Amino acid sequence: MSIRSRLVVLVLAVIVPAIVASGWAVYTTYGRETDAVERTLRETTRAMALLVEREIEKRETAALILATSPSLLAADLETFRNHALAAIRPLGGHVVLADANRQLLNTSAELGRSLPPLALPTQDAQFDGVQVSPMLRAAGFDEPLIAVTVPVAREGAAAWNLSVTMTPSQLQRVISDQSLPQGWTAAVLDQQGVVVARQPDPARWIGTPAQPDLRERAARDREGIFQTVTLDGSAVTAFFSRSPRYGWTFAIGVPRTVLGTTVSGPLAEIAIAAALLLALAVLAAARVGRGVATAIESLRDSAHAMERGERIEAARSGVQETDEVAHALARASTRIRDANDALERRVAEAVAETQAAQQKLLHTQKMDAIGQLTGGIAHDFNNLLQTLATGQQVLARLVNDPRARPVLEACERAVHKAAKLTQQLLAFGRRQTFSSGSIDLRDQVLGIRELLAGALREDIVLSIELAPDLWPVQADSTQLELA
Predict the structure, then answer these.
(1) What is the pTM for the complete model shown?
(2) Is residue 265 scored above 60 in pLDDT?
(3) 256-307 vs 320-398: helix axis angle to the nearest 10?
(4) What does the CA dihedral 241, 242, 245, 248 come to, rounded to 10 degrees?
(5) Rounded to whole angstroms, how far apart are CA atoms 304 and 294?
(6) Is the pLDDT of residue 34 over 50?
(7) Are 119 and 103 spatial neighbours (Cβ–Cβ below 8 Å)?
(8) With contact defined as beta carbons under 8 Å apart, do 214 and 228 qualify?
(9) Torsion sign over Cα 219, 223, 224, 230
């Protein structure tokens, strides 16, 4: 495979995985961003549903507190009306007290005035909980309302119903306070799927049943997301969350085009940028590959010329490594001759070094032979000295002439010195056995003083100073003298 083909394969090996990785990154990022947007919208819907639930819960709490008011249980309606007005003033709406047939008190009218017929749903005698009515229109009220009703127990039985009302405009403020983006749709639905509050166009759609698919899903599921069409005909992705306590639903509709643009817009920019970068990388790789291939082919031609013995001119390619190789090839032909001369010279030096090493080896072998010969002679001479020493000792016992005593002592000293010399020759020849023992350094040094003085020139004076308390050492006496 040529260098060009290999470079193409190399570029493809880098770019193809990069393209695949980029595509996979865009795909997975799109999925994550979509999930993140949907999760955010789902959490927003849940939070709005909780706000609606809390608005209803406030009325329920007020109703439960008022239902246990001592003035109400004592049937002091005037006092109770004042307490009721104070309790609902922060909330808005009205308080209605009724029995099974008529209204007994309504905070929207003065006490003692004639009240219209019963406008709110009543509970039977078994009612002992809290009831939130769907949105309804009642006589005596200017706008639709929702009633949160609790029973009032007297003497152990439910005698009256106490209702705290809430208007759609109060729930409409919950939606308006959120400042949802332009084009989004938000709606609050009662238990029957009727629109109680909405953005946009609340006046147009309040009291209108929501789309059938939204009512069906809200009745079946606690929360969800699906594609639908709003009442005004906009295609949206709808998110809804239903309160399990009251059965009311909050829904948000995001236009599909807006949702897709929110996710796909940044990803499209990333994909375009990645494509441009890949294109630039391909162009740069092709240009660099062409330059590398040309430089390699030039080196190939130079190598062939060098093989033929031709002189090589270094051509500049712009690639640092190939230029260095080209210059090296240009210098190689000259260096080859120098290398041959140097090789011959080194061979001659190596031969000379080998011969010198052989001479050293012969000298070492000769010295070893001399040492062996010296050791053998010393050993034989030591045997003769032992015979002489034995004979001298026998003569010392047999001869009683005083004149022979100095001669015998001189012979003994000569034999002793000859034995020492033999021990030194054996040490040189490495044939004696070492005998280690405790040695007095003072006696040892003083004993070889004569030998040391004889080895020095006449103009050198030998002076020995020894401490009086030298410690003994463990050593071989002959080896210590040789040292």
Answers:
(1) 0.49
(2) no
(3) 60
(4) 120
(5) 16
(6) yes
(7) yes
(8) yes
(9) positive
Residue 272: how many other CB atoms lie within 10 Å = 10
Interior/surface letters 345-367, b for 16+ CB within 10 angstroms, e for the rest: eeeeeeeeeeeeeeeeeeeeeee
pLDDT confidence of residue 474: 92
Question: pLDDT by residue (tens digit) across 147-171?
Answer: 888 888 777 667 788 888 888 888 8
> Which one has a higher pLDDT value, 427 or 355?
355
State the angle between helix axes of 3-67 and 256-307 in degrees (0 to 180), rounded to the nearest 10: 160
Which helix (H) or strand (E) element contains residue 253?
strand 249-255
Question: Is residue 133 pLDDT above 50, yes or no?
Answer: yes
Compute the distance between CA of residue 238 and CA of residue 225 in angstroms, rounded to an integer: 6
| Whole-number pLDDT of residue 125 | 43
Share of the chain above pLDDT 90, in %: 1
Identity of the residue numbered 23: G
Residue with tokens 């009311």: 248
Whether 293 contacts 4, CB under 8 Å: yes
